[in-house]
Predict the structure.
Amino acid sequence: MICTSVNDAVLHGLPYDYVLRDGDLLSLDFAVAIDGWVADAAISFVVGDEVDPEDQRIIDATRQALDAGIAAAGTGTRIGDISAAIGGTLIGAGYAVNSDFGGHGVGSTMHQDPHVPNNGLPGRGYPLKTGLLLAIEPWVMRDTDRLRVDDDGWTLRSATGCRTAHTEHTIALTPTGPEILTPR
């Protein structure tokens, strides 16, 4: 399954009749199931050659937040450590963070426990253990932390119509640290 979120759509964008234009900000969220296992990944990018520097800035912030979240994941740490790393990066870049939707456990089904908010307190929450599979997914909107839901009941957009970005990897916690299972 692929969700396509364009410009002000940030999560769960259902495809619709729209022709992408130069300068559109597109987020693709991929969910796959192979041999009874699932993985989740997302990427945001600007279509064409016209790249608004603020679009690139928001994309870069989600990538940096993803890297920080992955770096904070390890056996013996907690969900809050991942959440605090993501939130600290996004807030430090000047963005407000919505924690209603975020990362999640994966495995035999999509969207398992534990929930991985995109902001939190270090040292709090579910303890991380070797073998845990997590989808870590920082996402942010330029000027708000509020969402609205489209009439399709699925697509989530910024409440103000501002641009958005979303980046995600599925990781496995191994004895030697997190391993990215969805490299680009």
Remarks:
- The chain has one domain: 2-180.
- The chain has a mean pLDDT of 96.
- The domain at 2-180 is CATH 3.90.230.10 (Creatine Amidinohydrolase).
- The CA atoms of residues 4 and 28 lie 5 Å apart.
